[in-house]
Specification:
By secondary structure, the protein is mainly alpha-helical. The chain folds into 2 domains: about 80 residues, Helix-hairpin-Helix base-excision DNA repair enzymes (C-terminal) (Endonuclease Iii, domain 2), CATH 1.10.1670; about 100 residues, Orthogonal Bundle (Endonuclease III, domain 1), CATH 1.10.340. The protein is built from 13 helices and no strands. Helix 7 crosses helix 8. The radius of gyration is 28 Å and the shape is elongated.
């Protein structure tokens, strides 16, 4: 049997040694696209000057009324909630009164709110839980509020920060949308965005910044047609996810 001369084995077998060497080289890692940095302190100060009146728009006089109003505000405007709550609170002024009610009793009062059937079930259930486990008194700590039926992390954060001043940065649809547009967060879930915002702002700023982002989202930075030309922080905003306005043909 005739042996291949040294150095010709790759050529006889049809395999290029140079090609084989190139195929083992690692491709350089792709550069990670960084989120545009925005000065958090300047953002806070600018929004604070724009909206000195920023705060909750929900009407309430007791901790129980606040809790009920925040539960109703999910998938519903605060203005709509404020229209239905006077009659609801007149009929069920306390957890003890609402604990005696069935969802069918509550539904007529909140029918114009979104998801009213599910909310009626939750309101009846959380009222019973408050009466049974908390002596009829609405708990003020976030860790306790989340144990109530129908009370999620966001709702518990909103209620606790108003009742006890507990530092919290609840993320609703407005806060989530603005956090992404402003380049503060690239996360798609409120829970992850909340953690990022808590790192960007000092705890004493959380409650105020929560309200400021909501007010800016309602007044200027809407979901579909943000009013960028009249935005008071347009020079700071990278407008992430905002489609540029198309110009008319022939203009």
């Amino acid at each position: 049997m005739k042996k291949n001369p040294p150095g010709q084995r790759g050529a006889q077998s049809g395999i290029s040694t140079s090609t084989n060497t190139l195929s083992t080289k690692k491709k350089p890692p792709k550069a990670h696209r960084k989120t545009p940095e925005i000065p958090a302190e300047e953002l806070f100060e600018r929004l604070d000057r724009l909206y000195p009146e920023a705060g909750t728009a929900l009407h309430y006089t007791t901790p129980f009324e606040l809790l009920v109003a925040v539960v109703l505000s999910a998938q519903c405007t605060d203005a709509r909630v404020n229209l239905v709550t006077p009659a609801l609170f007149a009929r069920f002024p306390s957890p003890a009164e609402m604990a005696k009610a069935s969802p069918d009793d509550i539904e007529p009062f909140i029918r114009s709110c979104g998801l009213f059937r599910n909310k009626a079930k939750n309101l009846a259930a959380l009222s019973r839980e408050i009466a049974a486990s908390f002596g009829g008194i609405v708990p003020q700590r976030r860790s306790e509020l989340v144990k109530l039926p129908g009370v999620g992390v966001k709702t518990a954060g909103v209620v606790s920060m108003h009742l006890s001043g507990e530092p919290a940065f609840p993320v609703d649809t407005h806060v989530q949308r603005l956090a992404v547009r402003l380049g503060l967060s690239r996360e798609s879930t409120p829970e992850k965005t909340e953690k990022i915002l808590e790192k960007l702002f000092a705890p004493e700023r959380w409650i105020r910044m929560h309200h400021l982002l909501i007010w800016h989202g309602r007044n200027t930075c809407s979901a579909i047609r943000p009013d960028c030309p009249n935005c008071g922080i347009r020079d700071l905003c990278p407008k992430i996810g905002v489609a540029p306005k198309s110009t008319a043909k022939g203009s």
